[in-house]
């Protein structure tokens, strides 16, 4: 592996883990930077098809969705239809008449780069008010506790990130070693065996995490959580591959040496976010109530 790829991986891990642990506005600022870069890469993919989206408007509104997620998730949900309407109005009054493709690409950018990732902000804020011990809503453990001793939002976010990373790594290794069956024309290098390995890797780690976090019916909930993460991360990877293939490019950008663009690194995390959030905030509480009754 090239040295540039190793170094960029180390730097990215330090930044990602540091901002994730800190949470609060530290996580929001770091996440907003990622959204800005990812949005720019998305726009380049769209423009490669001759489409002219509402670039600045959709970027501003995507950032607004991210910032509001730190304050109140209901505000984010309320802003989404309003933001979509604002984009439509902007395109209506452009000097050059907009097309259906311009409108669709702008709305997709808002949903894909702004709204879906905002669920990571919502997740990370769970339990943060009680655990905050730094300015700007930040948190840093006084001792290094077990995973179950961390704030709910932090422990689940870390578990999710680890599972998604394992799914990507296991899919790569499994595809290299045992891959024989072609998976999809969207991504010619992907194999069925690699996809199965990726989902299994996610399931194993998620089940162990469910046990450590004392989830109700930890075997069943862990397997379900791992399946959700494994399948949703694979879908996110394929969606970004589809856009790159349609745009005729190999990578979404060249920001990270040896890795490509930001979208190339975070595509597996985009569609997983809402599944994780609602699994934790809706399904687990229902199961806990059922066990208690």
Q: Strand arrangement, largest sheet?
A: 1-2
How much strand content do the residues show? Answer: under 5%
Strands, count: 2
- The count of helical stretches stands at 12
Classify the helix fraction into a percent range: over 70%
Given helix and strand content, the structural type is: mainly alpha
Biggest beta sheet summary: 2 strands, antiparallel
The helix/strand series, from N terminus to C terminus, equals HHHHHHHHEEHHHH
Give the oligomeric state: single chain
Bulk shape: globular
Average residue-wise pLDDT = 90
Distance between the amino and carboxyl termini:
54 Å
The low-pLDDT segments are none
Write structural notes for this entry.
By secondary structure, the chain is an all-alpha fold. It has 12 helices and 2 strands; from the N terminus they run ααααααααββαααα. It has helices at 3-22, 24-47, 55-71, 73-92, 100-115, 118-124, 128-131, 152-178, 192-212, 218-247, 262-270, 272-292; strands spanning 182-184, 187-191. A two-stranded antiparallel sheet has the order 1-2. Strand 1 and strand 2 form a beta hairpin. Helix 3 (55-71) runs antiparallel to helix 4, helix 6 (118-124) packs parallel to helix 12 and helix 10 (218-247) crosses helix 11. It is globular, with a radius of gyration of 20 Å. The termini are far apart. The relative contact order is 0.12.
Short description:
The chain has 293 residues and is mostly helical. 74% of the residues lie in helices and 3% in strands. α2 (24-47) runs antiparallel to α3.
